[in-house]
Amino acid sequence: MNKWPVHATWNGPIVMIGFGSIGRGSLPLILRHIAFDKSKMTVIDPSSTWSHLVEKEGIAFLKQEITKQNYKSILTPLLTAGPGQALIVNLTVDVGSIDIIKLARETNSLCIDTVNEPWPGFYFNTKLDNADRTNYKVREDLLEVKRKLGPGPTAVSCCGANPGMVSWFVKQALLNLARDMNVAIKEPATREGWAKLMKRLGVKGIHIAERDTQRSKNPKPLDVFINTWSVDGFISEGLQPAELGWGTHEKWLPPFATRPATGPANQIILPQMGLNTWVRSWVPHQEIVGMIVTHGESFGLSHALTVREAGQAIYRPTVHYAYMPCNDSIVSLHELRCRNYELHPRTRILRDEITEGMDLVGALIMGHRFQSWWTGSKLSIAAARRKVRHSNATAVQVAAGVLAGVLWAIRNPQRGVCFPEDLPHEEILRDARPYLGRLVSEPSDWTPLRRHRVYFDENPMAQGDQSDPWQFTNFLFRP
Ligand SMILES: NC(=O)c1ccc[n+]([C@@H]2O[C@H](COP(=O)([O-])OP(=O)(O)OC[C@H]3O[C@@H](n4cnc5c(N)ncnc54)[C@H](O)[C@@H]3O)[C@@H](O)[C@H]2O)c1
Fold first, then answer.
1. What CATH class has 8-156?
2. What is the reported pTM?
3. Which atom of ligand 1 has the smallest separation from the CA of 237?
4. pLDDT for the residue 125
5. What angle do CA 376, 21, 136 make, to 5 degrees?
6. Most informative mutation of 229, 346, 348, 398 for ligand 1 (most atoms within 8 A of CB)
7. Contact 213 CB / ligand 1 (< 6 Å)
8. Domain boundaries in the chain?
9. pLDDT above 90 (res 79)
């Protein structure tokens, strides 16, 4: 039997909101590595399908939907029950993360979530301008709250695998790249320091490159949307406009792209769904075509890695997600298009029926002397199951980010609202490491032009930009 190391002690109440695939992956890790009184923990979810997993641990399960109307009245008594400061682990869909962070501050609680989630209605509100239902907008709103709240109890926003861990992979990749390029450096201690290092190494682009090869023993039935994590969460972000951190080296702006009118304007927004915006990318050791699904790190990393002079951005890499989900999910997405984006009548998250495959999720850092460099986690289903039974590789990778974020918050309880980019990557990766399978950090000579072929000479766009492989136009997949 495994004897897991206890990394921290927590003396107050713990409230976990949402017990879906990520909640079920995270709870065993929290139980293993944090010493706390289980009778002071509550897990809240409107579905009691998995309540037995909570109750068998002696933890209270509250069958309840958290809404904009009831979140204060339900959560406040739990958070202030004492003795001791409370900890919120927010792992839901459809619960406004900003309001939960504000409530955490009002009740002097620590808080962590994996996504900056709005209350329901935001993503699909076509009455809103395109720019007003973007991740950029919700991040801007959160930054405003961070400014207003100022210093105080720690709230770590967007701390899963991606967003989350991938920001630490980027730092690790830069250090490894500098070493192998024989560039003598001192490890940066600030956002500006990391941005300057990236500029010095000649990086032009970052993909959060993910390929999920997990496969089920059962063929996908019709009318069921299958995924390896939240179907609701995936569809919400997939239907949102594609957004990407926009590099200062880019020469060509995609047609109809807009730049935000307020804030740092470090992103561009495309008036098309992320799930219909495909790009060429690479994970070890295969070229993939992934989707630019909007994600917190497109904003967070590109904002953190901007070098400014006299208030002007003089350097910034292009940053976005390139997600190639599991095969059943790709088929489900195509059926979703056939259904004119009306969700299938049934949904399923794959777990025990998975027979093989792995999730490869990492940061692909491009444009330097080696061309590309991938740093990330290759976690097979078998290795994931050895760590968390009845889970899958995707959920375990995310849970590793949650655990690392919770431990960091407990050790650093007065850091205010933080983002993954602000966290010390070495310390935090150490806590996540046992759950990441093979941690890879290696070069590749991949460029989007390496195997580029033009099939239709009549189409000038098909030529791409042969003068610079790292222009966004070369990544954009044109069928
Ligand atoms: N950062 C990352 O790497 C990462 C990766 C995967 C998922 N996520 C995010 O984590 C969250 C959870 O993902 P998941 O895969 O566990 O989702 P899931 O769909 O499996 O589970 C969500 C759970 O929340 C519950 N829920 C829904 N509405 C609720 C409400 N109003 N109040 C309380 N509970 C509610 C559902 O009943 C469900 O059990 C999602 O927001 C998802 O986008 C982040």
1. alpha beta
2. 0.97
3. 43
4. 74
5. 65
6. 229
7. no
8. 8-156, 165-395+436-475
9. yes
